[in-house]
Amino acid sequence: MGSLNLGRSNLDPDGVRENFDRVRSALDVHTVVALGQVHTPDVVQVTPELVAGWGEHGHLGSSLPGQSRLPVADAMVATDAIGTGVALAIRVADCLPVVLTDPAAGVVGAAHAGRVGLLAGVLTNTVDAMRRAGAGRISATIGPHVCGACYEVPTEMQDAAARQHPRIRATTSWGTPSLDLGAAARDQLEQQGVTVHSLGRCTRTDEELHSHRRDGAQSGRQAALVWFA
Would the keyword Transferase be found if you checked this record's keyword annotation (predicted)? Predict the structure, then answer.
């Protein structure tokens, strides 16, 4: 099982605080902005005003149902107006973490793209939001996620997803229907003129990473972060 759990649900708040303090120190950032991720296509604009009111450990939110305090969305976009040392963080345990950048325009984005959000358009919405903020030549990096050889789904779910994105159809290494979220995400992004890179690690098979598919309810979360240095 992976270490450095950055999730909110399976670790005590002191543990989350300590782990994020380690991340902030290693990356030399003072603020980490996170979301209440709920598999939507919604994108939040991270503004200097939001950052100013965030607080040292605002990424913890609240453990009480219905009282997240985190912006509820699955992607965020920021310009260099937020200043240096502010990281946007997406937390995952099998879904795709995607970070997007246009250094020349001073625009960055980060998205949580699980099956539901990906099919609903969270990545296309993130690119559109970045373009409205002034981005031109965007590069995206897809982080570790459950791969098409491991993401088994019922045939009906595969057929429904493939009707929207044919590239998502795949087969597990044991011969059953699956989804390749990474292939579908790459296709979506490239159709929008985005240059795409993938880290190519599968969360289910890589023991260094957290995976809900592999470890179930006790799984932790890793995070993808992007920031202005």
Answer: yes
Instruction: Measure Cα distances from 136 to 39, 92, 102, 197 in Å.
Output: 27, 27, 7, 17
Please state whether beta strands 86-92 and 31-33 pair in parallel, antiparallel, or not at all (unpaired). parallel
Report the C-alpha gap between 90 and 37 in whole angstroms.
8
Sign of the torsion angle spanned by Cα atoms 126, 103, 52, 47: negative
| DSSP calls for 139-184 | EEEE--B--TTT-B--HHHHHHHHHH-GGGEEE-TTSSEEE-HHHH
DSSP conformation class of 66:
T
Q: Where are the domains of the chain?
A: 13-227
Place of tokens 């002034």: 134
The CATH number, out of the four listed (3.60.140.10, 3.30.360.10, 3.40.50.1000, 3.40.1160.10), of the domain defined by the range 13-227? 3.60.140.10
Q: Which of 6, 78, 16, 15 is nearest to 37 (CA)?
A: 6
Which pTM does this prediction carry?
A: 0.91
Q: Tell me: the pLDDT tens digits for 89-101? A: 999 999 999 999 9
